[in-house]
Amino acid sequence: MNRMVLIARAVITDSIRRRVPYVIVLFAGALAAAIPSLPNYGMGVEPAVFREVSLALMYVAVIVLALALAANRLPAEFERRTVYAVLAKQVSRWEYLVGTWAGLTVVMTAVIAAFTVVIQVVAVLFYGDPMWVLWVGALSMLLEAGVVIAVAVAISTLMGPVVVVVATLTILFIGHSRSTLLGGLGAAELSYFYPSLDSFNIMLPVAHGNGVSALAVVSMLTVFVGFTGLALLLGVVMIGRKDL
Amino acid sequence: MSTNDVAIRVEGACKTYKRIGRSHAHMAVDGVSLKVERGTIHGLLGPNGAGKTTTLKMLIGLVRPTAGTFEMLGEDSTSPKGRRSLGFLPEQPYFPQHLTALQALRFYGRLGGVLKDEIDGRSNEVLAKVGLRGEECTELSKFSRGMLQRLGIAQAIIGRPEIVVLDEPASGLDPVGQRDVRSLMLELRERGTTVLLSSHQLSEVEAVCDRVTILNFGKVAAEGHIDELLNVSGQTSFKVRGLPEFPRAVSELASDVAVSGSVWVFSVEDSAVRAVVDAIDDAGGTVMSVTPKRESLEDYFARLITLAGLEVAS
Ligand SMILES: Nc1ncnc2c1ncn2[C@@H]1O[C@H](COP(=O)(O)OP(=O)(O)OP(=O)(O)O)[C@@H](O)[C@H]1O
Ligand SMILES: [Mg+2]
């Protein structure tokens, strides 16, 4: 446990040192600030539309950043052989993999929190409303980022960064396409077995509705635990069989 | 050697690498067995590509063996638990660029089980030991190749392990650094630490190793004390100074004659040593040294490779 924390900490320091997180947060923050002044019906954007657009913006930024941090993390360690000195210690490969995932997820937590605060500040300035419901959207994004990182890290045990990005985006796309892919087939029974990430789709209720039900949050957590666990498990099996 | 005295045991290690586009797989390591007694320094010698690194990586669990058992202090060393008492220096070690030397040692030391309160003291201690005092706060991106090698050694010994495995510890080091590494290994042995090192430099090995295993083409070519392996039986080597010209009486007996400045080096049959010393005295020369003739490792490797070539041909 202790060793996993050490590895996660090393991943965090390394990510903080990189410029990507700041660039993305700054860029997206600037965009969020620009949303309220979009020329919509000549009187600015409605609060609900502001929430929807800023959450969508945040979603894209989060996925891009998660992939930017995760896709090359392990491949670079393998290629530069920095992994030898770590795994020659009393560290298991699963601790190394899960520690890497945990470190990256902590970084994403910080970024998402910073992001949400930026949007809240904009909301207070333009609408006089802190829009606390945004945090539910932030939670769904954090959980989805956790899944994306787990999938990317698992694939990166065997593949290079380009393959990792393409494969992870494909899985993400399939995960959100249940209705498109199964709808036409009329195969409703199959939908229970479909590896769906739709539980994370709460942007619209957050933006336009009265928030999200407890059941939706539980369902989100379940999907997160299931997908992350499965991806990390596969990653552990794959890294365990690898010749370094 | 009772089982309690064995620090490292490798039995029947094999590793095949599949090669794309080739019909048969490549045997990088082919049935290597190895036993290292506790508290000794053991050398793993062999030419490039002999399988030294692959053997060490299998021992440490970095590469999955095709076959074989690997133990340290009686425990399976390919599992994390079996590596509890290990310090390892990888070949051409590399570390995260943005860390300083001290940060890197803190990280590896803590991973290796050094307690939080002790880590700073221990880091400074090993940095001084490998000659990096004053570089604590230098970023590793500014380290030279030899400095990285030194840091690699530091992270291997920071946890005061009972067993230290060093893959080419002298590579990239200047002569002073090489000497420092040799004395460090002797110091470790003094403390009861077992050292297994790989090398292709005779000077590195002969000065410190209690025993050596010579690998060639993935197989053990020889095992024993370095003197037994490399001394040419029945021959004595001379080093002589102050001869205006090489005496006739000696030149008839000598072989492998070489001269550099005023120093002559040559070898003779053991039985002729007396006569040669007298002849040199008579000629006004000074004998600087008389030692058992030793084959150079280069010659030894060259011979091994020719022998293996003959076997394949026949
Ligand atoms: N990852 C790999 N894939 C395929 N072949 C490999 C791999 N690693 C090593 N080999 C092969 O295994 C053989 C032994 O290599 P190894 O690195 O163990 O040699 P070595 O004795 O350490 O040599 P050196 O003195 O150059 O370090 C070589 O023929 C090499 O080509
Ligand atoms: Mg090698």
Account of the protein in words:
Chain A is mainly alpha-helical. Chain A is built from eleven helices and no strands. In chain A, helix 2 packs parallel to helix 6, helix 6 packs antiparallel against helix 11 and helix 7 crosses helix 8. Chain B has 314 residues and is an alpha/beta fold. Among the domains of chain B are: 139 residues, P-loop containing nucleotide triphosphate hydrolases (Rossmann fold, 3-Layer(aba) Sandwich), CATH 3.40.50; 67 residues, Alpha-Beta Plaits. Helix content of chain B is 33%, strand content 31%. In chain B, strand 7, helix 5 and strand 8 form a beta-alpha-beta unit. In chain B, helix 2 crosses helix 3 and helix 3 packs across helix 4. Chain B starts with 5 loop residues before the first strand and ends with a helix. The mean pLDDT of chain B is 88. Chains A and B meet through helix 1 and helix 5 of A and helix 2 of B. The complex binds adenosine-5'-triphosphate and magnesium ion (MG). Adenosine-5'-triphosphate (ATP) binds next to helix 1 of chain B.
Order of helices and strands of chain A: HHHHHHHHHHH
Class per helix and strand makeup of chain A: mainly alpha
Rounded to an integer, what's the Rg of chain A over CA atoms?
Answer: 19 Å
Question: Largest interface: which pair?
Answer: A-B, 22 and 28 residues
> What would you call the structural class of chain B?
alpha/beta
**What is the H-and-E element order of chain B?**
EEEHEEEHHHEHEHEEHEHEEHEH
| Residues in β-strands, percent of chain A | under 5%
